[in-house]
Structure formats: structure tokens, C-alpha cells
């Protein structure tokens, strides 16, 4: 099954949590922080949203940083995705 976002929405997939700290300590599952970096897997067409013309500035494959409590989490075919608005994306990681 494929997710096709509408309007100014973007489907992202979270990157894996870090298992080892920068100092080399192996972290247990409970101590790992949720990453706020994700990879874009689908992009909506943009268009007019709330009376304003929205041009999509992100592309499939971009790695992005997004707002901590943004979006809706969905599970499809055993994979977890989050659907967010483009305005909830804070930066593109290069």
C-alpha cells in the first residue's frame, strides 16, 4: 500500500534511535532519545491552503528536522510513518 499526502502535507519516516552515546556508552532502550530527524518518503502537491498559495520546498529523500509534537503517526505494512504539514518542517539536513 502507498501513502499519497494531500495539499501541503509530507510523509516522513523516522531515522533509527542512536544505540551508542557519543562517548561510546551503549544506551538501553529506555534511555534513547526520539530523533527529530526523519527522511521524506512522500510529498503532497501543494496548492492553495487556507487561502494562501503553498509551494512545496522539500523533495522525496530529503532528511529534515521537524517540530517535536507535530503530525499524525500511522502504521502501514508494518512500517511507522508520520504525516506532517510542510510548515512543521524546521530545516533540511545536508
What does this structure look like?
It is built from no helices and eight strands. It has strands at 9-14, 37-43, 47-49, 52-54, 63-66, 72-76, 79-85, 89-93. The protein has a six-stranded antiparallel sheet with strand order 6-7-1-2-5-8, with no helix packed on it. Strands 3-4 form a two-stranded antiparallel ribbon. The radius of gyration is 15 Å and the shape is globular.
Percent of residues in helices = under 10%
Question: Kindly, what is the distance between the CA atoms of the first and last residues, rounded to a whole number of angstroms?
Answer: 29 Å
Strand order of the largest sheet: 6-7-1-2-5-8
Strand content: 35-45%
Topology:
Layout: E1 9-14, E2 37-43, E3 47-49, E4 52-54, E5 63-66, E6 72-76, E7 79-85, E8 89-93
Antiparallel strand pairs: 1-2, 1-7, 2-5, 3-4, 5-8, 6-7
Short description:
With 94 residues, the chain is mainly beta. It contains no helices and 8 strands.
Top keywords for this entry?
two-stranded antiparallel sheet, 94 residues, single chain, six-stranded antiparallel beta sheet, 0% helix
Amino acid at each position: 500500500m502507498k501513502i499519497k499526502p494531500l495539499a501541503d502535507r509530507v510523509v516522513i519516516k523516522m531515522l533509527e534511535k542512536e544505540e551508542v552515546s557519543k562517548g561510546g556508552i551503549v544506551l538501553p532502550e529506555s534511555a534513547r532519545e526520539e530523533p527529530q530527524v526523519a527522511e521524506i518518503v512522500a510529498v503532497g502537491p501543494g496548492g492553495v491552503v487556507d487561502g494562501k498559495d503553498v509551494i512545496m520546498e522539500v523533495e522525496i529523500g530529503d532528511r529534515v528536522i521537524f517540530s517535536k509534537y507535530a503530525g499524525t503517526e500511522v502504521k502501514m505494512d508494518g512500517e511507522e510513518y508520520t504525516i506532517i504539514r510542510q510548515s512543521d518542517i524546521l530545516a533540511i539536513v545536508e
